[in-house]
């Protein structure tokens, strides 16, 4: 059902809207409705689970606090209001689990290893618009809606969630100017803490298309218009078997 509303709008802007609507062969009301829909449409999420194993077992299927890690992530995403979820994986075990137990999740099965950058680029067109990406071996309590707002407000092509750490990442630490990420340095100078990438971010389609096969982290310095979202809340990464027991 549609409701008629009255709005006040700048006269010159209204003329622009009418011209653009005319080019598309629709009336201005329908054109304005399309504009609003584009900005309120839910942002999809892709969980990157390719080549993520510990002692030969898929990290996503390992138990942590009596639930599989992928269950924790799906609960988190749905609790944050995100229901359009994709998982990229090269694991038949994870594919079978998702098909049986998590049928609402869309699966991108990869027959060869293409890395996190390759996965994002490979599946970007199928997703069709900006999307959040996260690794399958990370847990957060970040407010994802605020992340999306930050990304849109800054007109960013890529927004990376960063957190301060005592030790720099093997992929380098972020050097910022305001919220803009200038570069990642592999061997930073001495500092009490370093800003490192947490494996969570949001990316526009135009940037995602440009990524290549291989790790995303190794391509970050090639990407322009990237921003850092500082987050100091709960973040747990699962690198080894012991991480699932603590």
Structure write-up:
The structure is a single chain. By secondary structure, this protein is of the alpha/beta class. The chain has one domain: Spore Coat Polysaccharide Biosynthesis Protein SpsA, Chain A, CATH 3.90.550.10. 30% of the residues lie in helices and 27% in strands. It is built from 7 helices and 15 strands. The chain has a 7-stranded mixed sheet, with helices on both faces. A two-stranded antiparallel sheet has the order 2-3. Helix 1 packs across helix 2. The mean pLDDT is 90.
Quick recap:
With 246 residues, the chain is an alpha/beta fold. It has helices at residues 11-24, 28-40, 69-79, 92-101, 115-127, 144-153, 205-208; strands spanning 45-48, 53-54, 57-58, 63-64, 67-68, 85-89, 106-109, 131-135, 138-140, 158-165, 173-177, 180-185, 194-203, 226-230, 235-237.
List keywords for this structure.
about 250 residues; alpha/beta
Average pLDDT figure: 90
Look at the structure and name the CATH superfamily: Spore Coat Polysaccharide Biosynthesis Protein SpsA, Chain A
Per the CATH scheme, the topology name is Spore Coat Polysaccharide Biosynthesis Protein SpsA, Chain A
User: Could you say which structural class the secondary elements and strand pairing correspond to?
Assistant: alpha/beta
Number of helical stretches of at least 4 residues: 7
Output the strand order for the largest sheet: 7-6-1-8-13-10-14
CATH architecture: Alpha-Beta Complex
What is the β-strand count?
A: 15
Q: pLDDT below 50 for ≥5 consecutive residues: which ranges? A: none
CATH secondary-structure class: Alpha Beta
Assembly state (oligomeric) = single chain
Largest β-sheet summary: 7 strands, mixed
**Helix-strand sequence:** HHEEEEEHEHEHEEHEEEEHEE
Radius of gyration: 20 Å
Give the strand content: 25-35%
Q: Indicate the overall shape.
A: globular
Alpha-carbon distance between the two ends:
51 Å
Approximate helicity band: 25-40%
Domain unit count? 1
């Amino acid at each position: 059902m549609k409701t008629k509303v009255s709005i006040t709008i700048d006269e010159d802007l209204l003329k622009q809207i009418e011209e653009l609507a005319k080019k598309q062969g629709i009336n201005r009301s329908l054109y304005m409705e399309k504009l609003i829909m584009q900005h309120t449409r839910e942002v999809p999420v892709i969980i990157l689970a390719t080549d993520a194993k510990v002692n030969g077992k898929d990290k996503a299927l390992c138990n942590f606090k009596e639930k599989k890690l992928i269950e924790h992530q799906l609960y988190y995403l749905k609790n944050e209001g995100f229901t359009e979820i994709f998982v990229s994986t090269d694991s038949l075990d994870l594919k079978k689990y998702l098909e049986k137990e998590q049928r609402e999740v869309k699966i991108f099965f990869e027959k060869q290893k293409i890395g996190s950058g390759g996965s994002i680029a490979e599946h970007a067109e199928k997703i069709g618009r900006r999307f959040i990406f996260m690794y399958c071996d990370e847990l957060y309590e970040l407010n994802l809606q605020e992340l999306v707002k930050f990304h849109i407000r800054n007109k960013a092509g890529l927004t990376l969630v960063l957190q301060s750490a005592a030790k720099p990442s093997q992929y380098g630490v972020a050097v910022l100017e305001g919220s803009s990420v200038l570069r990642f340095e592999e061997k930073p100078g001495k500092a009490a803490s370093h800003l490192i990438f947490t494996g969570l971010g949001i990316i526009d389609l135009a940037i995602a298309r440009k990524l290549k096969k291989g790790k995303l982290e190794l391509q970050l310095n090639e990407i322009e218009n990237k921003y850092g979202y500082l987050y100091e809340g709960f973040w747990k990464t699962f690198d080894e078997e012991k991480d699932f027991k603590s």
